[in-house]
Amino acid sequence: MNWNSLAQFIHLLAVVIWIGGILFMDGFLAPALKRAIAQADPRARLLYGLFRNFFAVIWGAGASLVITGYGMVFLRGGFGVLSTAQWVMVVLGSLMVLLALYIFFVPFLRMRSAVARSDWGAACAQASQIRALSAINIVLAVPTILSGVWAIFGAPF
């Protein structure tokens, strides 16, 4: 196995962990918790704990994505040799990482603050904002992944 193959494997694994995690948390778990736990206090505490654990893993996945993604760009000879599909993947992937950083540093830290002061309504509001912004990353993931597939296998048209 060469460095490029190893970087591709780590990159794909990080994508699966990050995007799969968002899809599970925001698409399945959070709505189920909202239906199952009517009171804001226990729901906010549980969501905060889940988001905290999720972000702990996502920091590693995100760092892996940035390091392997930009590393592969330079292994291939730099930005000047990238195909259109590769450029799309780099640009959209970078936007996704920036959005994830915003999600962590703004609504998540606000949620942490709200939980610390037992402001359950504010904590739930921030959880909703996290979910809404994460949905944008799910939408961005589709063309990003598609451009990655096209970069490797070619566009079907």
Q: In percent, how much strand structure appears in the residues?
A: under 5%
- The rough form would be described as elongated
User: Based on helices, strands and strand pairing, what is the structural class?
Assistant: mainly alpha
Mean pLDDT, as a whole number?
94
| Cα distance spanning the termini | 31 Å
Structure description:
The chain has 157 residues and is mainly α. The protein has helices spanning 3-36, 40-75, 84-116, 120-153. The longest helix has 36 residues, at 40-75. It is elongated and about 55 Å long. The two termini are 31 Å apart. The mean pLDDT is 94.
Task: Give a brief outline of the structure.
The chain is mainly α.
How is the topology of this model organized?
Layout: H1 3-36, H2 40-75, H3 84-116, H4 120-153
Helix pairs in contact: 1-2, 1-4, 2-3, 2-4, 3-4
Fill in the keyword field for this structure.
4 helices, 157 residues
